[in-house]
């Protein structure tokens, strides 16, 4: 039994970070009032650039390149939606489409259909003393992003809930005019949140190609960005909530994969497709129950205009 | 007329700009000669190889490519209309993909399981698809109207529910076609011959009834929106729900009907794919036509006929895209053009402002007018 738990926990901890980072990025951007439908595209760009960069430089540096690439795509989003007040959903969808088709085009023309050549994966850290403890031993033997993903959500929760900057970020997503009244820059705060969200989404993508896989695979991230959005909504737009939701989804996924290989009989009772649909159905159910009292930031999706009320 | 031209111009310029940028992209990764050749291949693959036809080749060098383009254009028209109709009532239908999946599945089931004469079977399958798509979209509308759930989030979630349940369960499980004589098949059982959309040109091309159907529906949607009272009320709700309510428009009903119509159109796209080309619900639906619909609707300025023109254009490019592979350019390249065009449409205030500034700077004309954000992106 503890072996099974260990294996489940281990694969959850391996798979969750990408989802956690992307969900955190989405939370950051949306709390500041900018819709984050483009997370999928930012992850894809991050994954691609990290994999390509890792061919030429040490992998940890390449992860940084992936983060910057995600931020670059976020900068386009910010330019269109903050500077020019374009529709945030349209801009995000456009970036997703560009990243999807552009990634395929560049991959095919540079490396062929089988993905980039294999790269050096991020090294795994063995935690001495922990490895032999039953179940908890699953904490040992992961790469750095896993440990970061366990800490970062709480840091962000502290930032948003307990610091002046966090208050300003939340205010800019709920009532930007109030922030402007204090003489603070609405655009500046939103830019910061959008770029930060891009860095995090890029990191999520980079983790996929440097820690989960060892290359950029053509379909990366295959909808994980949208699942990050689901985690954000399910976690009621809070960092720790999104983290818990993402971890829960990742655990469900690990359980599903585990069941496929170990207990195919169980899958005849509950088909795999139903398990796959579960995170999205749960999110929908939660939203339905919450109704009008949804915890979405009040000014989400509204471009800021000084003249408006 | 000048007004109308002004409305069309940004979309046309966005598409041209996207074409130019993508040409430069191939020229950059390969050579400029390859880029030009690839574009020519895309053109001949889309509208037919006129040079070789004029040199005396058989008519099929024209009809085959044109038929493929028409098929792609039909799908893009239907999903584009779906997104455009939802926009008109003020909703952003990101769920066209999921609605299309449900529609395709319904068409495949009705097409395979029922035995009807051809004159009834095709309409029955189309109706089933439209109803399935409408029901899936109706869920999002209900959530919006009665629980205040934002449709962007709910349709994204419904997309993934549809993909998971249909592609990863029904199609590989309960509804999987029975393999005959040792053949292994993916997807549902093949539809019966009576449910196949009739081909219009016989063996000359794969052009089928789906294309005229899509064009007819585009005209009908346009007429409904522009010329009928419910259509007018629908647009009024999209422009301002509160004002419409004050004027006595039944806002909830208009919203629900428009969203159901949007779902029905996306569902029909699924039916056209299944009944016209695939002959069954394949393992997966392939290209995400539902998401393409968003690009098509917005490039078409959210106008039913504009979306149709955009769909025809990108149908040609997408059909011709397969020919680009001859030169080592991936067949998804036209999707990149489409995505960039959407990005440029989204950011059109940027370069319109740049153009205006440039126009204003040489002469002593009036200072550039302030950019009015109200004419910017389509209302969502």
Please sum up the structure shown.
The complex is a heterodimer of chains A (309) and B (380). With 309 residues, chain A is mainly α.
List the SSEs and their pairings.
The complex is a heterodimer of chains A (309) and B (380).
Chain A: H1 2-31, H2 39-54, H3 59-83, H4 88-111, E1 124-125, E2 142-143, H5 144-162, H6 164-174, H7 176-181, H8 186-212, H9 224-234, H10 239-262, H11 264-269, H12 272-290
Antiparallel strand pairs in A: 1-2
Helix pairs in contact in A: 1-5, 1-8, 1-9, 1-10, 2-3, 2-4, 2-8, 2-9, 3-4, 3-8, 5-6, 5-10, 6-8, 9-10, 9-12, 10-12
Chain B: H1 2-29, H2 32-47, H3 50-54, H4 60-88, H5 96-113, H6 118-147, H7 151-170, H8 210-227, H9 229-239, H10 241-246, H11 251-278, H12 289-299, H13 304-324, H14 333-346, H15 348-360
CATH class call of chain B: Mainly Alpha
The pLDDT mean of chain A sits at 89
Assembly of the depicted chains: heterodimer
CATH topology of chain A: ABC transporter involved in vitamin B12 uptake, BtuC
Strand content of chain A: under 5%
Helix content of chain B: over 70%
Task: For the record, give the distance between the C-alpha atoms at the N and C termini of chain A, rounded to a whole number.
Answer: 60 Å
Strand content of chain B: under 5%
End-to-end gap of chain B: 26 Å
Total count of helical runs of at least 4 residues of chain A = 12
Task: Identify the CATH class of chain A.
Answer: Mainly Alpha
Largest sheet of chain A: 2 strands, antiparallel
Form type of chain A: globular
CATH architecture annotation of chain B: Orthogonal Bundle
Number of domain modules of chain A: 1
Biggest beta sheet summary of chain B: none
| Secondary structure tally: strands of chain A | 2
State mean pLDDT of chain B (0 to 100 scale): 87
Chains forming the largest contact: A-B, 53 and 56 residues
Reading the helices and strands of chain B in chain order gives HHHHHHHHHHHHHHH
Helix content of chain A: over 70%
């Amino acid at each position: 039994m503890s072996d099974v738990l260990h294996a489940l926990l281990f694969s959850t901890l391996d798979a969750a970070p990408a989802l956690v980072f992307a969900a955190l990025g989405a939370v950051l951007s949306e709390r500041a009032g900018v819709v984050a439908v483009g997370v999928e595209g930012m992850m894809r760009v991050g994954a691609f650039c990290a994999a390509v960069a890792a061919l030429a430089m040490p992998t940890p540096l390449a992860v940084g390149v992936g983060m910057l690439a995600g931020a670059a795509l976020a900068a386009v989003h910010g330019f269109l939606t903050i500077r020019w007040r374009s529709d945030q959903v349209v801009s995000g969808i456009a970036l997703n489409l560009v990243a999807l088709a552009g990634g395929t085009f560049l991959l095919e023309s540079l490396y062929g259909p089988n993905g980039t050549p294999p790269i050096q994966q991020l090294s795994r850290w063995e935690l001495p003393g922990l490895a032999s403890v039953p179940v908890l031993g699953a904490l040992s033997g992961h790469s750095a992003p896993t440990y970061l993903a366990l800490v970062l959500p709480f840091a962000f929760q502290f930032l948003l809930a307990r610091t002046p900057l966090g208050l300003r970020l939340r205010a800019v997503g709920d009532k930007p005019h109030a922030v402007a009244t204090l003489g603070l820059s609405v655009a500046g705060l939103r830019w910061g949140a959008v770029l930060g969200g891009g860095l995090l989404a890029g990191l999520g993508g980079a983790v996929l190609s440097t820690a989960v896989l060892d290359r950029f695979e053509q379909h990366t991230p295959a909808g994980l960005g949208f699942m990050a959005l689901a985690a954000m909504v399910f976690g009621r737009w809070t960092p720790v909530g999104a983290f818990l939701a993402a971890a829960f989804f990742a655990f469900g996924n690990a359980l599903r994969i585990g069941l496929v290989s170990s207990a195919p009989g169980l899958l005849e009772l509950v088909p795999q497709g139903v398990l796959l649909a579960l995170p999205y159905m749960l999110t929908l159910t939660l939203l339905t129950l919450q109704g009008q009292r949804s915890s979405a930031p009040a000014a989400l999706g509204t471009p800021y205009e000084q003249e408006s009320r | 007329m000048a007004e109308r031209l002004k409305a069309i111009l940004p979309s046309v310029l966005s598409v041209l700009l996207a074409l130019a940028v993508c040409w430069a992209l191939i020229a950059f990764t390969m050579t400029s000669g390859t880029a030009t050749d690839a574009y020519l291949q895309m053109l001949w693959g889309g509208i037919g190889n006129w040079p070789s036809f004029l040199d005396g080749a058989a008519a099929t060098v024209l009809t085959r490519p044109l038929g493929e383009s028409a098929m792609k254009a039909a799908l893009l028209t239907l999903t584009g209309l779906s997104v455009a109709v939802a926009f008109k009532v003020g909703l952003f239908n990101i769920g066209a993909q999921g609605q299309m999946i449900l529609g395709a599945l319904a068409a495949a089931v009705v097409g395979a399981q029922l035995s009807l004469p051809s004159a009834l079977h095709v309409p029955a399958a189309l109706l089933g698809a439209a109803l399935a798509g409408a029901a899936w979209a109706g869920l999002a509308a209900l959530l919006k109207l009665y629980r205040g759930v934002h449709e962007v989030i709910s349709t994204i979630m419904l997309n993934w529910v549809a993909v998971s349940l249909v592609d990863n369960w029904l199609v590989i499980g309960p509804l999987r076609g029975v393999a005959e004589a040792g053949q292994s098949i993916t997807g549902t059982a093949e539809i019966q011959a009576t449910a196949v959309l009739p081909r219009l040109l016989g063996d000359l091309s794969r052009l089928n009834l789906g294309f005229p159907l899509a064009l007819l529906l585009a005209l009908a949607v346009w007429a409904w929106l522009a010329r009928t009272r419910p259509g007018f009320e629908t647009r009024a709700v999209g422009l301002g729900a509160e004002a419409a309510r004050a004027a006595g428009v039944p806002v909830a009903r208009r919203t629900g009907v428009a969203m159901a119509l949007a779902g029905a159109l996306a569902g029909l796209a699924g039916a056209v794919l299944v009944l016209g080309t695939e002959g069954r619900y394949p393992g997966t639906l392939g290209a995400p036509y539902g998401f393409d619909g968003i690009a098509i609707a917005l490039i078409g300025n959210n106008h039913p006929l504009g979306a149709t023109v955009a769909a025809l254009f990108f149908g040609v490019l997408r059909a011709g895209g397969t020919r680009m592979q001859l030169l080592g350019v991936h067949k998804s390249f036209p999707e990149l053009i489409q995505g960039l065009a959407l990005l440029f449409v989204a950011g059109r205030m940027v370069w319109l402002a740049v153009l205006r500034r440039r126009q204003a700077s040489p002469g002593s004309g009036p200072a550039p007018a302030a950019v009015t954000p109200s004419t910017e992106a389509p209302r969502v």
